[in-house]
Amino acid sequence: MSHSSHAPTKSPPRQQPKRAAIASVMGGALEYYDFALFASAAAIIFPKLFFHDSEAAVLASFATFGAAYLARPLGAIIISHIGDRQGRKHALLLTISLMGVATFLIGCLPTYDSIGILAPALLVTLRLVQGFSAGGELAGASSLTMEHAPEGRRAFVSSFSLVGVGIGMVMANAIMIPITALPDDILYTWGWRLPFWLSAVVLVIGIWVRRSLDEPEAFENAETSKAPPFIAVFRENPQGVIRVALCNLFAVVQTVTTVFGLSYAIQQGVNSTTMVAIVTASQFISIFARPLCGLAADRFGRKPVFIFGAASSGLLIFPFFSAIASGNVFMIAVSMILLTGVAISFADGAYPAFFSEMFNAKIRYTGMAIGLQIGILLSGFSPTIGRALQGEDTANWIPVAIMTAVCSAIAVLAALTAKETFRTPLEQLGIKNTRAEASTIADPDKATIPAS
């Protein structure tokens, strides 16, 4: 049965690319406002407030950051089910509401000194809610914007879901610069709470924008699968899920640089406010770079743009850590901007369309969401793994860089097995991606570019 069985067969197009892009920006901004805010707080503030500033406090704080990634796969399954059955809009209203409320409540939590072990327990609980929400956000935003986009501009329009990511990280880091500069007696009492409370503003605006959206025509005209989307996607296109999961290992670069890199720099004596400012500058550049890379993916194809971004970011991680080890602030800034402002933007600009186009409309949300969250599990715990790889020598960054580069290399190899879809009409996407095509993973030469 079609989602629009009650409507005339030939309904007029209801593409809303601008409004869909704005809605995606708002959701991405809220999700990654929290990501960057929690990342900075996990490295600078939470060890003292929630883990009693013990020797293992930083490691425990990083583990709390990673806890959200455990809830992401469950969120991906449940929220994407809503998105593929009831509509993208309903699912995305749920994600933004959960994320906004949980982020605000973190700012209301009592600390370890007030309620003891219950404080980190409550922090982990709210972090799990955030992870559950994040599990369905980006895949839904990418599907929604891609399906609303005009032909030939799918990568450009869907890249705005990642523009929101950049805006969220810039907002969080820009706020953290004056916050971390506060005197300790203010910072560790009420000052750290302010950025979390400010998420309420983004939440209200985001809900208002998303409520005004129509469902994409591609979704409403899609035939609903008899099996639940989670079952259907593994029947029809398991190789797509695996490919997205492997490609998304490039996200380890982002987490290692913004979370582990920040903590490592502080350990090496770099001023925390300076590091947050550098991260902010690189993310600000990415806001403009990602749509340009989306345009490139519409012009030259998803695969070359994504592969260039994943490969170059894996290589640039070495000069990034080398610069931190040297303590040269100028070189840290240059390497950070090249890595997270430029290189990663190539992959980020392409992958919302690249990943979502691997699936047909009836399982698109589910396929991309599950693949993303399986792949991102390692990303969530990469700061913890990185700290463990350092061992007793906290100046030893080489094992962490190698781990990050290997993840980027796996992402590149997985992307090479994918079909190029930038010339494929929207209604034909994912039609041929069945089990018979699974051999493409082993033999990428079988993949062909559809005729324009």
TrEMBL record:
It is found in: Cell membrane. Its main location: membrane. GO terms for molecular function: transmembrane transporter activity. Keywords: Cell membrane, Membrane, Transmembrane, Transmembrane helix, Transport. It comes from the Bacteria. It is a multi-pass membrane protein. GO terms for cellular component: plasma membrane. The keyword Disulfide bond does not apply. It holds the Pfam family MFS_1. Residues 20-423 form the Major facilitator superfamily (MFS) profile domain. The chain crosses the membrane at residues 21-46, 58-79, 91-112, 118-139, 160-181, 187-209, 244-266, 272-293, 305-324, 330-351, 363-385, 397-418. PANTHER family: SHIKIMATE TRANSPORTER. This is MFS transporter.
